[in-house]
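Readers of this paper often ask what the protein records in our data store actually look like. Nothing more is needed to write down the fold, since each code stands for a local backbone conformation. Below, we set out a record of this kind in full and without editing:
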Amino acid sequence: MSDKRSILIGLASFMLTGAVILGEQWLALTAI
């Protein structure tokens, strides 16, 4: 149970980080 929870937390944080990076890149592209 704890293993599944840790995996979900890791996946969520990974997706959140990826979304932030994509958002910054999109803002940088549209700012040009």
